[in-house]
Every structure is written in C-alpha cells, then in structure tokens.
Amino acid sequence: MLSGESDGVIVLYDLENLTRKPSYTCKALFSVGKSHPDVHKYSVETVQWYPRDTGMFTSSSFDKTLKIWDTNTLQPADIFYFEGTVYSHHMSPVATQHCLIAVGTKSPKVQLCDLKSGSSSHILQGHRQEVLAVSWSPRHEYVLATGSADGRVKLWDVRRASGCLSTLDQHNGEKSKASSEAANTAHNGRVNGLCYTSDGLHLLTIGTDDRMRLWNSSTGENTLVNYGKICNESWKGLKFAISCGCNPEFAFVPYGSTIAVYTVFTGELITVLRGHYSTVNCCVFQPHFQELYSGSKDCNILAWIPAPREPVLDDISEKSLPQQHLNQAYEDAWSSSDDEG
C-alpha cells in the first residue's frame, strides 16, 4: 500500500499479516524520506499505483508537482510541473488506448498529462475556479468527472474538441427551484470529493454545503437520495470510498475523527467507525480483501474489516435466503483491526 504524508514523505507498506493474529501492525517496506533528493517539499495529496502493475506509482503534492516513480529504484522517472497547488490526480483504471493522468490544480483548467509523450499541454476548460477532485470513469476510458470550487461537477469526453459532455444540475433542470447563481451547480458550495461506483453507472459527489449527492452517470440526473447532513469542513480535496463486491454497496466518508458508513442507494447511515484520535483525511477500499483503510492526522493508518456474524436460522424461509445473512455481516459490524502504518 502507498501512503502520502503531510511532510512530503511517501511510504510503502506490506499488508500481509504474517503473525496470524487478529490485531497486528503492518511493516513499512520502503520510503521516499526527507533525505531523498526528490522528496516532495510539501504535503502529498494523492498517491496512486500505475493501474497495470506495481512497478510504477504516481504522487502529487502542494509543491506544484506530479511525480512518476519507479518502484524498484524509488527514483522519479518523470516530473510534471504546474503553476499552482495540485489538489488531486487520477489515472484511468480501465484505459487501454491512452495513458493520460488527469490533474486538478489551483487553476480552473483541468490538465491532462500524457505518460507516453511527457506532454501536459492538453487542457479542459469550463470550470471557473480551482479543481479539487478528478476521477476517470471505470466504465468508459475517455470519460472524466471533475469537481470544482465553483460548485460544479463536469463530465468530459477527452476525445472531443469541446470536451465537456455535461454539467450536473442538482435541480435536474427545474429552473423554478434554482436561482440564476445556482443554475447548473451540483452543490451550493465547493465540490471537493468525487467517487464512481465500481460499475461506473453512478457518481457520488460531496460538497462543502454538507451534502452528498448520487448521480446517474449516463443521464446526469440527480437521483435525489437523501444522506442527511454530511460534515465536510475540508478546504482541500476529500478522499472518500465506495465498496465493491458488497450487497448493498456502502460509502465510507470521513466525518471528523470518525468514518460514517452509508448505504449508497438508500442513503441510510449504517454505522460510524471510531478508532482515530484526530481528523480523518482519506479512506480507500480494498475489494480483494474487503478491507477499508483510513488515514488520519493522528499519524495512523487503520485497517477495518467486516466482522461476519453466525447466521441464525429461525425457519425454512430463511434457509432459502442465505444471501441475506451475507448482507447482515456488512450492515453494522465493521470493526477496526487497529493496524497502524
């Protein structure tokens, strides 16, 4: 696992539990530490493995750079420089025809960096303020979603000259509900978090209006799922996660020093995960292990696992529905295995 820290350091962890104990500490294998000549000067905001293999990874920072790293040598293979702070970057998990990295910076222009050519000249224009979140669709390799401080979420087809496919509207085009200022806005505040569902059919967005909204990614329609008030005081990007392989699917959202767990399609608050001692900055879901990892200002990374309960069979009808017992295991039994990175 890759971890980016507020002091610019990057650490690689081995997640394998060799102790066979339910609670254990992950070992740090390597790091790009303070003494490294190419260490980031300021906070690392995003880290991501190259989607094809772990021989390469990427990092971006408030030091206005995006760095492409060789995992084996821990040396940068390429460095992209920007005029403003870098809030977020993302590589497509499904692309076979391009090697573009989408980058959100203090500029309202979305920048696309090409790993093959080393060029960062391709830009997407349409936002009015800084771009805080970017995410490629896991379904269509040329479709990109971006969230900005202007309250707007835009979907782009990067092959098109005009670029922008649509601008998501929280009011679904009903002008009577929208003032002229709020027209075609996804949130009444800064949009600082984006996450697609694993099938790419829906997009979840978070804004500083303390709201989370679920969108149909093909029609751009606000599904109007009500999650209640979401505490979001982050002035930069908020990294939250959606499960993959659960039924129903869950959204894991940093909420102060806790993590709120919602059902994605009904908006129900299932549980709150408590274990950190300070503000939680990010969450990431590992579908192969069905584990959640969270990073906090308390300098800990915690691993959370669902604790399955033994099914209680009351009658024959329950025996015919074993799937329901699998669902219950994920409903409110998430627990911390107290992994510290």
Automatic annotation (TrEMBL):
<dbReference type="InterPro" id="IPR019775">
    <property type="entry name" value="WD40_repeat_CS"/>
</dbReference>
<dbReference type="InterPro" id="IPR036322">
    <property type="entry name" value="WD40_repeat_dom_sf"/>
</dbReference>
<dbReference type="GO" id="GO:0009416">
    <property type="term" value="P:response to light stimulus"/>
</dbReference>
<comment type="pathway">
    <text>Protein modification; protein ubiquitination.</text>
</comment>
<keyword id="KW-0539">Nucleus</keyword>
<dbReference type="GO" id="GO:0006283">
    <property type="term" value="P:transcription-coupled nucleotide-excision repair"/>
</dbReference>
<feature type="repeat" description="WD">
    <location>
        <begin position="37"/>
        <end position="79"/>
    </location>
</feature>
<dbReference type="GO" id="GO:0016363">
    <property type="term" value="C:nuclear matrix"/>
</dbReference>
<keyword id="KW-0597">Phosphoprotein</keyword>
<dbReference type="GO" id="GO:0043161">
    <property type="term" value="P:proteasome-mediated ubiquitin-dependent protein catabolic process"/>
</dbReference>
<keyword id="KW-0234">DNA repair</keyword>
<dbReference type="InterPro" id="IPR015943">
    <property type="entry name" value="WD40/YVTN_repeat-like_dom_sf"/>
</dbReference>
<keyword id="KW-0158">Chromosome</keyword>
<comment type="subunit">
    <text>Part of the CSA complex (also named DCX(ERCC8) complex), a DCX E3 ubiquitin-protein ligase complex containing ERCC8, RBX1, DDB1 and CUL4A; the CSA complex interacts with RNA polymerase II; upon UV irradiation it interacts with the COP9 signalosome and preferentially with the hyperphosphorylated form of RNA polymerase II. Interacts with ERCC6/CSB (via CIM motif); promoting recruitment to lesion-stalled RNA polymerase II (Pol II). Interacts with KIAA1530/UVSSA. Interacts with a subunit of RNA polymerase II TFIIH.</text>
</comment>
<dbReference type="GO" id="GO:0000209">
    <property type="term" value="P:protein polyubiquitination"/>
</dbReference>
<feature type="repeat" description="WD">
    <location>
        <begin position="124"/>
        <end position="159"/>
    </location>
</feature>
<dbReference type="GO" id="GO:0005694">
    <property type="term" value="C:chromosome"/>
</dbReference>
<keyword id="KW-0677">Repeat</keyword>
<keyword id="KW-0853">WD repeat</keyword>
<dbReference type="GO" id="GO:0031464">
    <property type="term" value="C:Cul4A-RING E3 ubiquitin ligase complex"/>
</dbReference>
<keyword id="KW-0227">DNA damage</keyword>
<dbReference type="InterPro" id="IPR042238">
    <property type="entry name" value="Rad28/ERCC8/Ckn1/ATCSA-1"/>
</dbReference>
<feature type="repeat" description="WD">
    <location>
        <begin position="273"/>
        <end position="304"/>
    </location>
</feature>
<dbReference type="InterPro" id="IPR001680">
    <property type="entry name" value="WD40_rpt"/>
</dbReference>
<dbReference type="InterPro" id="IPR020472">
    <property type="entry name" value="WD40_PAC1"/>
</dbReference>
<keyword id="KW-0833">Ubl conjugation pathway</keyword>
<protein>
    <recommendedName>
        <fullName>DNA excision repair protein ERCC-8</fullName>
    </recommendedName>
</protein>
<comment type="function">
    <text>Substrate-recognition component of the CSA complex, a DCX (DDB1-CUL4-X-box) E3 ubiquitin-protein ligase complex, involved in transcription-coupled nucleotide excision repair (TC-NER), a process during which RNA polymerase II-blocking lesions are rapidly removed from the transcribed strand of active genes. Following recruitment to lesion-stalled RNA polymerase II (Pol II), the CSA complex mediates ubiquitination of Pol II subunit POLR2A/RPB1 at 'Lys-1268', a critical TC-NER checkpoint, governing RNA Pol II stability and initiating DNA damage excision by TFIIH recruitment.</text>
</comment>
<dbReference type="GO" id="GO:0000109">
    <property type="term" value="C:nucleotide-excision repair complex"/>
</dbReference>
<feature type="repeat" description="WD">
    <location>
        <begin position="184"/>
        <end position="225"/>
    </location>
</feature>
<dbReference type="Pfam" id="PF00400">
    <property type="entry name" value="WD40"/>
</dbReference>
